[in-house]
């Protein structure tokens, strides 16, 4: 009788563990959602970016809220400021740009992907530099790279002085790993 009870208990534990394991990915996908996948894949491909990185930036910037507005007036999924939006629109030869277009997922994701690619042209494949420039400004990253206080070699950063930018980079890199693990878009 005792042996049968032990076997039943072990089987129940095994079943519970399997249910938790099978549902953990679903649970994680609730924490790390993926919306606008078509737009992400389209523009990541157009600008030769890893779509997992694009999804991670969107998650870090807006948690996939297309109507998000920051304290600096950055808008939409990838948090593009109106000033940067106007600049990108000119570069893309987009006529009649209106800053409300930044709330449109298609426009916002294209602009964000174009911008990440533009930063990559300046900073190479160093994701940390690209993300730091995306959040803290390319001019600041150039200054940091030229300062021994933040860069030992002028090519990489050992310290990001802006707390917001440092947190953004850390958070986005964490999300990048999770999106590759959960969705593997690329």
Could you walk me through the main structural features you see in this protein, from its secondary elements to its overall organization?
The chain is mostly helical and 186 residues long. It has two domains: 1-31; 33-182, Lysozyme, CATH 1.10.530.10. Helices cover 64% and strands 0% of the residues. It has helices at residues 2-31, 37-46, 51-62, 82-91, 105-123, 127-136, 138-145, 163-182. Helix 2 (37-46) runs parallel beside helix 5. It is globular, with a radius of gyration of 21 Å. The model has no long low-confidence stretch (mean pLDDT 94).
What is the CA-based Rg, rounded? Answer: 21 Å
How much helix, percentage-wise, in residues? 55-70%
- The gross shape turns out to be globular
**In terms of quaternary structure, what is this?**
single chain
By CATH, the topology of the largest domain is Lysozyme
Q: Which descriptors would you attach to this protein?
A:
single chain, 186 residues, mainly alpha, Lysozyme, globular
List the topology elements.
Layout: H1 2-31, H2 37-46, H3 51-62, H4 82-91, H5 105-123, H6 127-136, H7 138-145, H8 163-182
Gist of the model:
The chain has about 190 residues and is mostly helical. The chain folds into 2 domains: about 1-30; about 35-180, Orthogonal Bundle (Lysozyme).
